[in-house]
Amino acid sequence: MENSPGRTPAAVRLRPWSPDDLWLLRRTNAPEMTEHLGGPESEQALLDRHARYQRIGGDDGRMYAVLLEETGEVAGSIGFWGITWQDEPVFETGWGVLPEFQGRGVAVAAARAVTAQAAAQGTRRRLHAFPKVRHTASNAVCRKAGFALMGECDFEYPKGNPIRCNDWRTELDAPRG
Length: 177
Description:
Elements: E1 12-16, H1 22-27, H2 31-34, H3 43-55, E2 61-68, E3 74-85, E4 88-97, H4 106-121, E5 126-129, H5 136-144, E6 148-156, E7 162-171
Parallel strand pairs: 4-5
Antiparallel strand pairs: 1-2, 2-3, 3-4, 5-7, 6-7
GO molecular function, one term: protein-N-terminal-alanine acetyltransferase activity
Organism: Actinacidiphila rubida
Pfam families: Acetyltransf_3
């Protein structure tokens, strides 16, 4: 469960991804953290991902470390990036919360915070998340963070690996410009 009954959800803040966050990427690459994502990546794939995370910005999106507001501890990562979905430019989001911080509402709070960041870009109307249909925890995060379930869909993650997902969507402010 993402948020136990009677427990106040965690307050978090997002810090842009930095060169010092490679350790976090390695921690979220553990088998238990990548079970629904096709399994752990190689060290070279992690180094490549880390470099991409540092470059992403502007209309391309942004990656963040998720910090607990109260203690400043790094609890996980989240981000958003531009994709084309059903012929529409949208943002996609994804997250990983370290095992010792799971079940405390961290992912829900981070998903709400990243939604605000994506909306502040002002360039896309929607933010989507695509957790596997059977990934109970991530689907619960989407629901609790205010995303609407659009239905099941076929998706590729990682590239070349077809999976069955739920398409969750939240509306962002209308694009400016």
